[in-house]
């Protein structure tokens, strides 16, 4: 069943060997997100590292709403 869901698989570098499933970018806190040098790639208006899921499903807005709920 998971094989039907995964339409493309790739990973970067030997640290990710064996990764063949489904993952989603979901930093635990706003601080972790803000300090991640790649977090801007998850803004739906970025034009250098386009992620369809982010653009189509507003993932960046959902993350910001989530972080806003954490005291």
Could you explain how this protein is built, in words?
Helix content is 38%, strand content 0%. With 71 residues, it is an all-alpha fold. 3% of the residues are buried. It has one domain (16-69). The mean pLDDT is 78. It is built from four helices and no strands.
Short description:
With 71 residues, this protein is an all-alpha fold. The protein has helices at 2-5, 30-35, 52-57, 59-69.
Residue-averaged pLDDT: 78
Largest sheet: none
Structural class: mainly alpha
How many independent structural domains?
1
Q: Per DSSP, what share of the residues sits in E-state strands of 2 or more residues?
A: under 5%
Helical element count? 4
Rg value: 14 Å
Roughly what percent helix? 25-40%
Element order: H for helix, E for strand: HHHH
Shape: globular
Overall number of strands:
0
Low-confidence parts lasting 5 or more residues at pLDDT below 50?
Answer: none
Distance between the termini: 38 Å
